[in-house]
Amino acid sequence: MLSPKVSVIIPTYNRAHLVQDAVESVLNQTYQDFELIVIDDGSTDNTKEVLAVYKDKLAYIYQENRGRSSARNHGIKIAQGEYIAFLDSDDVWFPDKLERQVPILEYAPSDVVLVHGYKCMVDKNLQPVAGWELKLRRLYAQAEKGEETYENYLQSTCIFTSTILLRKTALLEINGYDVSIQGREDLDLYLRLLLQDYCFAFISEPALIKYRCHENNTNEVSSNYSYLQVYEKHLNECLKLAVPDKIAEAKKLLYQALAKTHYRLRNYHQSRIYWQNAFIKDWETAFTISFWKQYFGSWVRQVILDFNN
């Protein structure tokens, strides 16, 4: 029996009320050369019973709760396809998602290992949420221009996990997701691929997926702490690079990213330290709006914070 071209991996945890929408959106794809693997990361609700009706259409794997990175890595390990697609269990694909993506990887040079595209913001009932169109176009501006580089991703990320299709060989080469990072493990994955000098391809509108907004989406504070994990990890990763100029540029951008993240978390003293490090690496940092707004603004905010406490 021939292996499928694509392995679709859905990690899920206690989303019995949502996972059927995700599964149906895969089964209804216009491109059908795929296998569907659902990794249940220790659900305590009736996820298993909900998915039992699809027993002949998907592989259901249960594991003890170890987090979504572990679940995705489990899926990668058993996947038979040449390409891997991930779908979060609260999101939904448009029917032509795979049909639009597979040919791009089929005919692209071997260094193009990932293809992604737009998402459509929807509410819990999968109805479009207005007001996001301009924000998303700005977010995807670099991808539209083919400027997805390691350095640019340290400043702004424009990939969402449910939109991607990747070559399995590239995922195996970097050992999949880092299970020690909780929340922005996807950013770390993309940065590690870019460090290998791999390239990404981008599909412009219309959107590939419906991204569901609901009360259990990752909150901003948790997200910022996860960013700190990623940026601190890559301060060490970039030191392994063989090109000195790339190391210097990456360190400057990582210092800036850490400074901005600490500022958002109200760690004003730590933010100033990283701004100082960024300035030492490149004095042109002083010409950025963020430097003036955050470095000097942090003194004022620190006084106000201390006064209120």
In words, what does this structure look like?
This protein is α/β, with parallel strands linked by helices. It is built from 13 helices and ten strands. The chain has helices spanning about 20-25, 45-50, 70-80, 95-105, 135-140, 140-145, 150-155, 170-175, 185-195, 220-235, 245-265, 270-280, 290-309; strands spanning about 5-10, 35-40, 60-65, 85, 90-95, 110-115, 120, 165, 200-205, 210. Strand 1, helix 1 (about 20-25) and strand 2 form a beta-alpha-beta unit. It is globular. It starts with 5 loop residues before the first strand and ends with a helix. The model has no long low-confidence stretch (mean pLDDT about 85).
Short summary:
With 309 residues, the chain is an alpha/beta fold.
Order of helices and strands: EHEHEHEEHEEHHHEHHEEHHHH
Q: Compute the separation of the termini in Å.
A: 68 Å
Overall form: globular
Provide the spatial order of strands within the biggest beta sheet: 3-2-1-4-8-6-9
* Main beta sheet: 7 strands, mixed
Low-pLDDT parts are: none
